[in-house]
Amino acid sequence: MKRRLVKGILALLAFIPLVGCWNAQEIEKRTIVVSMAIDRNESGGLTVSIQVPNPRQIAGGSGEGGGGGGGGGAVEVYSGSGPTLESAFEELNRKSIYPMFLGHMQTLIFSEELAKQGIAPILDFLRRDPEIRRHMYPIVVSGNAKDALTVQPKLEQIPTYYVRNSIESQIDLERVYDMTLGKAFVDLSHPGKQVPLFYYFKASKDGFVYDGMAVFHGDKMVGALDPTEMNIVLNVREKKAGRGVVAFCPGGKIIFGPNKVKRKFTITNQPKAMIAIELEGEVLENSCNFTIKDERALEKVNKIIARQYEQIAREVTARAQRELKTDVLQIRNYVYAYYPQIWKRVNWETMFPHMPIQVKYDVNVKRIGLKAQ
User: Fold this and answer.
1) Domain edges within the chain
2) Which of 21, 196, 249, 267 shows the smallest number of beta carbons within 10 Å?
3) Residue 119 pLDDT > 90, yes or no?
4) In angstroms, what is the C-alpha Rg of the chain?
């Protein structure tokens, strides 16, 4: 309820820049942008593409009626290029009838190539623009970012709204990380964080596929975590349940659906991090060669699921320390907040890749379904 209230207030705030436009005629004198995609072009500069709704083609709009979801013409895509973001915007403004209005943007899309090169100048430009909404979702796509604006999902007329609604519904279910542009600004400014996570999507002709989170070290993307790996990050970093997990057992597998999580950090002077996580949930599917009919069998299931989580956690921490060399679990923020003496004594960037990290899970299955098996 509290989250919905906050979303409602933020949605209301998005319209504040329009308060000065007292009639529809003045409002129409702005080109409304709902999404922006940024690519690195061949000359080394930037190509900025914008997605603009076409009111005549949207159901309920004036003039010609809109067709089914994703019908052609519901949005228009325009591009401008230049050595800097400002010059690319200037070219876009020359192509537009009216000045662009960025206050309704829902998503900000970067190509993976650009994200890996660094996006600090772009974020600096966006931070200085008063029209840019902080409550928009930053996304990295494999391939060209512009191509993501031309995707036509069948369930929405405006593709950007499909992505936004998909992200928000999964956030409410605690299945994905909650990241907005404003939170990215905070992470990059906070000495205890410095590791923003952007949504990582693959775009196809018919829609978008969520493929985990893009991991940044400062302003540069250093890799990505898939949805299974993100379960551990959600448990540790956000105290959120995450998605269901498949645990393998003799004769088959158990699908576990978590719904409650508790987390406890312990940091020693070495320093060493020990993270204890308690998970509650239910068995969604069981194809093992034993039935869950008594406390002994239930305890066996708890241990099988816990081992699976711990194995994934070991893989995630190993990737974070050896491959990404980035504290995706954000242990540094906990040390910065609660262990200032350790924080002042160590250099976190050089120490983290060698720091002992142990993640222990205690799983408690509360429900096994209508039929105990």
Assistant:
1) 2-225, 235-367
2) 21
3) yes
4) 23
